[in-house]
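INPUT
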Amino acid sequence: DGGITQSPKYLFRKEGQNVTLSCEQNLNHDAMYWYRQDPGQGLRLIYYSQIVNDFQKGDIAEGYSVSREKKESFPLTVTSAQKNPTAFYLCASGSGSNQPQHFGDGTRLSIL
Amino acid sequence: GESVGLHLPTLSVQEGDNSIINCAYSNSASDYFIWYKQESGKGPQFIIDIRSNMDKRQGQRVTVLLNKTVKHLSLQIAATQPGDSAVYFCAENRGYNKLIFGAGTRLAVHP
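OUTPUT
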């Protein structure tokens, strides 16, 4: 089936630790996105990439980093600089302007 | 009826009734709008979209209305079913396919 796969589903981070969230898509979409969702709130854009080897900061990029070495993959690293990382992280991909983004089923990150 | 919960506004409807979920958007230059449905613990699921050169678009049991004059978007769900219970988000495209999401509305369908 075509779609977006996020892993792991649940992740725990210790103080001072960096963790990486995986996002893979087989939809052949050029653009990929990372969002953060806090309880009872909408989605906020962390980073996005419109093409391989290129990415831009979204609205809340501080404390996060990304890479886009392959079209299919857009991993997100939550660094120790992100002081409030507990949230639900959603990855999406899209085929172009004025086309809907398609989402994975998220990774829930918690602090130990 | 409609009530404001601790975090999300909630719309409660009886099974079989029609539901209308409203959304105000921020940017008059936005040219593309999407409605998503999110079930607990899952990612948002695309429902329907509309471009700014249209004021109405229909899908299966769903209709989106766009009023650019007052920057208002609505989602109508016909014959609401228990499986429609979820949080619904509107999103507007602010350029380069960067979406701005609303805070969401919880739809609760009662038998």
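end of record. The CA atoms of residues 31 and 98 of chain A lie 12 Å apart.
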